[in-house]
Amino acid sequence: MSKQWDQTDIYTYHSRIHHRVPGYDTLHNLSATLMSRNLLKSEGTILVIGAGGGEEIIRMANLLPNAIFIALDSSKKMLMLARERCEKDKIVDRVQFIRGTASDLPDGMKYDAAVCFLMFHFIEQTDQKQVLLKTINHHLTPGAPFLIAAVCGERKSHPFQQHFLTWSTYVSHQSVPLDAINSYVESMGKTNHPISSKTLKHQLSHAGFGELTTYFQALFVEAIFCRKGDPNAK
């Protein structure tokens, strides 16, 4: 997965992702608001899985001036982009940048919250997705909020295909080139591996998360809020 992102043009990434994901700004603004309301301590440490680009960090940092961020990404180029954006916004001193995956995190390290936006669907195998969710849960303190946003749906189902047709029309109106649209369509099942919302919620529950709530959906992009276990549990 890191090879794919190390080959991308990082300086056009933000314009491309804004065009390709309907409601991109709303997703991030809602997520930052949710985190600011649900982080159990204002000076908490937030783990950002797939942090390349830095969008999540910047949005949350504005609402959580005392929070610290762990930016984790397997792509050197995308992590560099995140650092550059954090430096520009003068929050780089609040961010630790780590190149790697969740399995590379120190075993005893615990975080007060985590987010994983728009990268979960790049994991191919269902069992690999489950391992990631369990790893994230392992590294969270009890009651810690976890926000995840991903492409969801059963690729061959009629609703998913209808969403794709709507998406294609929508992005064409955003001046996205036809070859870029076709490339994304062709990525389904190759580099893009969505699962249904029902399956994702089942995996989250199985990984030890509760209070599962969908808080954002635009076509096939869905975002879910949950917590590690019971926040009142000892």
Description:
The protein is 42% helix and 20% strand. It has a single domain (2-226), classed as Vaccinia Virus protein VP39 (Rossmann fold). With 234 residues, the chain is an alpha/beta fold. It starts with a helix and ends in a 6-residue tail after the last strand. A seven-stranded mixed sheet has the order 3-2-1-4-5-7-6, sandwiched between helices. Helix 3 (24-38) packs across helix 4. It is globular. It contains nine helices and seven strands; from the N terminus they run αααβαβαββαβαααββ.
Contiguous helical run count? 9
CATH architecture: 3-Layer(aba) Sandwich
Measure the end-to-end span: 38 Å
- CATH C-level: Alpha Beta
Summarize the structure.
The chain is of the alpha/beta class and 234 residues long. It has helices at 2-6, 13-20, 24-38, 55-63, 76-88, 126-138, 158-172, 178-187, 197-206; strands at 45-49, 68-73, 95-99, 113-117, 145-151, 209-218, 221-228.
Task: Supply the key terms.
20% strand; 42% helix; 7 strands; Rossmann fold; 234 residues
Write the layout of secondary structure elements.
Elements lengths: L1 H5 L6 H8 L3 H15 L6 E5 L5 H9 L4 E6 L2 H13 L6 E5 L13 E5 L8 H13 L6 E7 L6 H15 L5 H10 L9 H10 L2 E10 L2 E8 L6
Parallel strand pairs: 1-2, 1-4, 2-3, 4-5
Antiparallel strand pairs: 5-7, 6-7
